[in-house]
Write a structure and sequence with these properties.
Agglutinin, subunit A, 462 residues, 3 domains, 4 helices, mainly beta, 5% helix
């Protein structure tokens, strides 16, 4: 895929192209991103396979599978190459042949193909959401199926074998490779942050701990069954339910999916099948319970970007900037934060009293657990503040009720709000006096749910 295509924000539009309804799809059938035959529908019409137009570019399309009967038309699979989404220009054609699927651009150049090692007789979009290429001579044998090549989502009746991987999107509407991966390998389910945009993996932030040196007792399959239960099946047949995984009844009245969301939370969702207005996907269960505090590695930024901190809102990570900082990208709270003034050992350092230039702002129960370069104890809070103010390398000091003071340098990483601990922790933020510079584009970071300065009301989050 060329760099221009990769640089496009892969934003999904709600309007759909017209579609073709079919049970089994014969060889020679085609779909075009400009024709009326833009998708193949399952017999129940619950799912569709075909082209979806991108709302940031009317001339680019995504080859995908989606829920067909709900207004959101939620995508659960898309064609990809090396974990990058395949983008089809307007006028591209997908053809079903005896050797598989082939997607060509308007000039006849191959964009993407799927060529199984068996001869294909026909294809079908099943009522499970699985798109299959049927092997010649055996209707029950699939030469290829989307269920065995998942992207970020699995559906009821889908089974992940050892070695399977889910890759999150970059953002909620950008289908590019994201910052988190789900691996079912070595007998365990692992959730792993990656050093985006590289494939390097940091330490996992969740594990099912179902590996055993005795392969008979080790995890063998990750199963999403017909009853919408998700569990790990061991080689000995034992079932290991995911922790606190809830069950919803009646099953037949809902659609279900489990998605590794762009924010790193693996979530099972349900959607009512009735036609009542204002319906939406709602959460059945999620892993981990608190991603803000689950990610713990000396490398990487954590659930949020560098110099920001994470707090939980309705089970999802929400990113905030500390006082005196702004989001790097005001439209993306996961982009990290930057100070609204120059920090470091610059010309101001030593020329004026530190108390004239800087002041300390406090956040309660916020910590950046890594990046310490000095630990001072026993110290009272005033001594801790003074030490940071007079140290040009100090961006933040963390102080707790054990009279310990940790000084931290840039960039701040793995920031999190956590009031569940037993120790009372204060983040002492060093900020420039006088507020924003005159020529600074002020974009305040205060949002509902952030820990407010000490002495004011701490807004709650659920």
């Amino acid at each position: 895929m060329d760099s221009l295509a990769l640089s496009c924000l892969i934003l999904l539009s709600l309007p759909l192209l017209p579609f073709l309804s079919a049970a089994n799809i014969p060889l020679g059938s085609t779909l075009s991103s400009t024709s009326n035959n833009s998708s193949w529908i399952s017999p129940s019409r619950d799912f569709a396979f075909g082209f979806r137009q991108l709302n940031n570019n009317s001339d680019l399309f995504l080859l995908a599978i989606w829920f067909n009967k709900i207004p959101e038309r939620t995508i659960i699979w898309h064609a990809n190459e090396d974990n990058h989404p395949v983008l089809a220009p307007r006028g591209s054609t997908l053809e079903l042949t005896a050797t598989g699927l082939q997607l060509k651009d308007p000039g006849g150049q191959a964009i993407w193909d799927e060529k199984p090692n068996k001869i294909v007789s026909d294809a079908a979009t099943l009522d499970t959401g699985n798109f299959v290429l049927i092997a010649s001579g055996n209707n029950s044998d699939y030469a290829w199926q989307s269920f065995k090549s998942p992207t970020d989502t699995i559906l009821p009746t889908q089974i992940l074998d050892l070695g399977s991987v889910l890759v999150s999107r970059l953002t909620e509407t950008n289908f590019s490779k994201g910052r988190f991966e789900l691996h079912f390998s070595n007998g365990s389910l692992l959730l792993i942050p990656v050093a985006w945009p590289t494939p390097f993996q940091y330490k996992s932030y969740y594990t099912s701990d179902t590996y055993s040196a005795n392969s008979f007792e080790s995890g063998h399959q990750l199963v999403f069954n017909e009853s919408a239960d998700i569990y790990i099946k061991k080689n000995n047949g034992q079932i290991v339910q995911l922790p606190q995984w809830n069950r919803l009844s009646p099953i037949a009245d809902h659609y279900f999916r489990a998605t590794l969301d762009f924010d790193g939370v693996f979530t099972e969702y349900a959607y009512p099948k009735n036609s009542a207005p204002n319906q939406s996907w709602f959460t059945i269960q999620r892993l981990p319970n608190n991603i803000c505090t689950s990610i713990s590695d000396e490398f990487g930024s954590g659930a949020c970007g560098f110099n920001s901190y994470c707090l939980l809102q309705n089970g999802r990570p929400f990113c905030e900037c500390p006082p005196g900082y702004l989001f790097v990208d005001p439209t993306n709270i996961f982009s990290g934060c930057k100070p609204n003034y120059w920090q470091g050992c610059g010309p101001d350092h030593g020329s004026r009293n530190a108390e004239e230039l800087y002041e300390i702002r406090e956040l309660v129960d916020v910590n950046w657990p890594f990046g310490d370069y000095e630990r001072l104890e026993p110290y009272d809070q005033t001594e801790c503040e003074t030490s940071c103010l007079h140290d040009c390398l100090c961006a933040v000091a963390i102080y707790n009720n054990a009279r310990r003071c940790w000084k931290k340098r840039f960039p701040l990483s793995l920031g999190a709000y956590d009031n569940a601990g037993t120790g009372f922790t204060k983040a002492l933020i060093k900020v420039r006096k006088g507020g924003f510079p005159v020529d600074f584009d002020g974009n305040t970071c205060g949002k509902k749910g952030m820990p407010i300065l000490l002495g004011t009301l701490l807004l709650g989050s659920s």
